């Protein structure tokens, strides 16, 4: 097996210059990763671009509580290495946590870091941790980026064990697609390590440090697409085997045995998904090394992303059902807990029963019994007389007969049910953010034809409208009944099953509502629904405007999502 390059995956050689004050077990949400508790940013030789050792630069005297631009308050130093430092900070203007990279303005890499940060900020792809600000001020250069407190580093996930096949599939799919989009804009990462990959609580993978991490450490490459592709292959290999695909140990993972070269994942660990293992080998193949099936190596993230999309979809594992523990009888009885049991004796303590109280045999007791008996006889006689009187009056056509006219106090309540379909005068697309979705087909949702309707565009990768910033409010249809009506139910025929939606009504005095908060009366709860949804209210809702609000779309194909509404019927009351 030919000798392999470690430039793309950043196997740090910590035998060089030591970090100044790297903190162990930090950087969970910081843009600068750590390796085995130490900053993985020591000088090292790169195959595609040799690291230039930074000239000694006096680090600025910063401390917790220092404020940048009278806005960003530094709270905790996460990394300090090669003359720059990374902090967890608080944006006091927007009251949110952020991450900050700091360098002296005369640092040799300050110019390149500023340029990389500004280029990364222009990408605006939600799959990357966003750069929020890049400023040179008061002899300092600082880069502000998102802080994701609910995210977990891939390093921590791999420390717990290898990834399930479905999770490894999501990792390579999302990361390769994100890097494909970045390279189309001319941006490379060059430091795609397990510490640069974050998994959010919703299962989405986010990449931090695009272009910036490499600029902070002076890493360059003549073949950036190949370098990032090999790095993605290393991430997938590590996810499948919990081993680093090189001889050196890195990121808390054990490397491969020395002298054997690169071996297939299924030779490292039993039960590895064969298709994913072959993708990892083809992404890692370099200098003549090829995958087991002798297929060409991937040279760009786009080639890898297309191969992942072409393979059979790997479904998530079925949730495991845990049987409840069997009921165990306890030996505890009141007054006996903690007492030793005689050898050979029964462990069950029998509590003696108290004797029943003696019967009332005195003169007072006998008088009380006869008094109670007399009261019961009187009550039964009175009840029988009242029942007979009612039956006689009913036979004579009395006040409870058919000729009796009920007053307002004994009038029976009206039974209200959802029945007649209310006319709809107008419809519009609910889009709280700019760029409404497919407004031209909104009338098809109320044309009486369930075979046609309004549908959203197709979104890639994420069920919540592609996770686009302009679609975070979801979408849907607003129905105008023309005037305030008593709404008793709804009948929906949807574009596809699996949509997550809720039906809400505006207040009776609402005028042209367009925001979710203006639809204050819930008709149905927010939940995943089938293709047809019918609901009847116990109490009618008075409203003129009804919103069918969609927040999540079902899958339509491989990694694409789409939803919509074919037909809407609003039902009124029928006494």
From TrEMBL:
It comes from the Bacteria. One of its GO terms (molecular function) is protein serine/threonine kinase activity. Residues 1-64, 317-364, 396-415, 431-452 are annotated as: Disordered. Keywords: Kinase, Serine/threonine-protein kinase, Transferase. InterPro entries: Galactose-bd-like_sf (IPR008979), Kinase-like_dom_sf (IPR011009). This is Serine/threonine protein kinase. It comes from Streptomyces subrutilus.
């Amino acid at each position: 097996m030919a000798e392999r390059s470690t430039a793309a995956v950043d196997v740090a050689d910590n035998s060089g210059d030591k970090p100044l004050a790297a903190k162990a077990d930090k950087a969970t949400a910081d843009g600068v990763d750590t390796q085995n508790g130490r900053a993985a940013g020591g000088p090292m030789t790169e195959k595609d671009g040799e690291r230039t050792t930074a000239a000694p630069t006096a680090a600025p005297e910063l401390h917790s509580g220092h404020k940048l631009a009278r806005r960003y308050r530094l709270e905790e130093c996460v990394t300090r290495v090669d003359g720059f430092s990374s902090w967890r900070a608080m944006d006091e203007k927007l009251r949110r946590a952020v991450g900050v990279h700091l360098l002296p303005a005369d640092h040799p890499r300050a110019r390149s870091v500023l340029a990389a940060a500004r280029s990364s900020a222009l990408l605006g792809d939600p799959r990357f941790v966003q750069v929020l600000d890049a400023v040179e001020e008061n002899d300092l250069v600082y880069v502000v980026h998102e802080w994701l407190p609910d995210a977990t580093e891939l390093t921590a996930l791999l420390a717990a064990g290898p990834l399930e096949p479905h999770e490894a599939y999501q990792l390579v799919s999302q990361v390769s697609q994100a890097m494909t989009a970045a390279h189309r804009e001319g941006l490379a990462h060059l430091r795609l390590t397990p510490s640069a990959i974050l998994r959010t609580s919703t299962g989405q993978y986010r990449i931090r440090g695009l272009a910036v991490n490499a600029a902070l450490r002076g890493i360059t490459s003549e073949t950036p697409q190949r370098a990032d592709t090999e790095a993605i292959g290393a991430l997938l290999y590590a996810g499948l085997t919990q081993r680093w695909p090189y001889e050196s140990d890195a990121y808390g993972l054990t490397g491969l045995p020395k002298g054997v070269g690169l071996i297939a994942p299924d030779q490292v660990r039993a039960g590895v998904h064969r298709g994913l293992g072959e993708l990892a080998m083809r992404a890692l193949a370099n200098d003549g090394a090829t995958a087991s099936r002798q297929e060409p190596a991937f040279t760009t993230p786009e080639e890898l992303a297309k191969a992942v999309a072409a393979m059979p979809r790997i479904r998530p594992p079925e949730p495991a059902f845990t049987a409840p523990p069997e009921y165990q009888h306890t030996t505890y009885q009141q007054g006996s807990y903690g007492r030793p049991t005689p050898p050979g004796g029964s462990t069950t303590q029998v509590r003696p029963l108290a004797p029943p109280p003696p019967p009332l045999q005195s003169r007072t007791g006998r008088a009380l019994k006869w008094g109670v008996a007399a009261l019961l006889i009187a009550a039964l006689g009175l009840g029988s007389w009242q029942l007979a009187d009612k039956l006689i009056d009913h036979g004579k056509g009395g006040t409870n007969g058919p000729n009796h006219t009920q007053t307002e106090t004994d009038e029976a309540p009206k039974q209200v049910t959802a029945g007649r379909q209310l006319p709809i005068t107008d419809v519009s697309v609910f889009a709280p953010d700019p760029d409404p979705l497919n407004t031209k087909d909104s009338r098809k949702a109320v044309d009486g034809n369930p075979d046609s309707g309004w549908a959203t565009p197709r979104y890639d990768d994420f069920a919540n409208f592609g996770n686009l910033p302009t679609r975070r409010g979801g979408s849907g249809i607003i129905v105008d009944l023309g005037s305030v009506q008593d709404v008793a139910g709804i009948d929906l025929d949807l574009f596809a099953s699996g949509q997550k939606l809720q039906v809400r009504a505006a207040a009776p005095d609402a005028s042209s509502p367009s925001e979710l908060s203006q639809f204050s009366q819930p008709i149905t709860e927010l939940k995943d629904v089938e293709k047809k949804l019918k609901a009847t209210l116990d109490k009618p809702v008075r409203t003129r405007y009804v919103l069918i609000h969609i927040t999540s779309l079902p899958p339509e194909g491989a990694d694409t999502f789409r939803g919509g509404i074919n037909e809407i019927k609003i039902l009124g009351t029928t006494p």
